[in-house]
Inverse folding.
């Protein structure tokens, strides 16, 4: 097992029996004290972040990880099916694991899934996705003040604010980080 000095950003370590993703590491050597490593990490099961201090000589278990790009196939009641485009193998992820990402999943849309010990732990969406507007009210004629927006329902059920000129049936680009309108696709 590697020492705490060897921990790097992006690795998954086992801490208190749980998998944690390392987000930042800092090696510090205060004046008259022993060196230590300050690690900021996120629990992959619960999503909570924490800061932990390790002695530089502590041994830490690094878990083997694999990141696969999968294509979204379909949604069942509580499960979401993804297909590996290389092996055509189907992987089912629970609705709890997918979480709010379900609002950005479209047929054949690609996502990155982080596997630890061949178990899926996290899902990463691309920066933006293109979604079709299924329901939107018409803009009022003469209401052309700058940056006036209206609600629009997208094909996944997500409701976002769009400019008045967007009509039903149009494809819009949506940010996956905050769910905001980015423009027409």
């Amino acid at each position: 097992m590697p020492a705490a000095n060897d921990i790097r950003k992006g690795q998954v370590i086992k801490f208190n029996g749980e998998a944690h993703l390392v987000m930042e590491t800092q090696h510090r050597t205060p004046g008259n004290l022993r060196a230590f490593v300050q690690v900021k990490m996120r629990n992959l099961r619960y999503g909570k972040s924490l800061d932990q201090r390790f002695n530089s000589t502590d041994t830490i278990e690094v878990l083997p990880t694999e990141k696969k790009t999968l294509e979204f196939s379909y949604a069942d009641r509580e499960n979401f099916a993804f297909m590996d485009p290389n092996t055509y193998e189907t992987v089912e992820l629970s609705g709890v694991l997918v979480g709010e990402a379900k609002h950005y999943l479209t047929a054949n849309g690609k996502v990155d899934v982080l596997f630890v010990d061949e178990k899926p732990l996290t899902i990463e969406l691309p920066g933006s996705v293109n979604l079709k507007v299924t329901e939107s009210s018409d803009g009022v004629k003469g209401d052309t003040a700058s940056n006036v927006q209206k609600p629009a329902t997208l094909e996944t059920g997500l409701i976002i604010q769009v400019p008045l000129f967007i009509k039903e049936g149009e494809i819009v680009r949506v940010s996956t980080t905050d769910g905001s309108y980015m423009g027409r696709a």
Q: What stands out?
A: The chain has a mean pLDDT of 87.
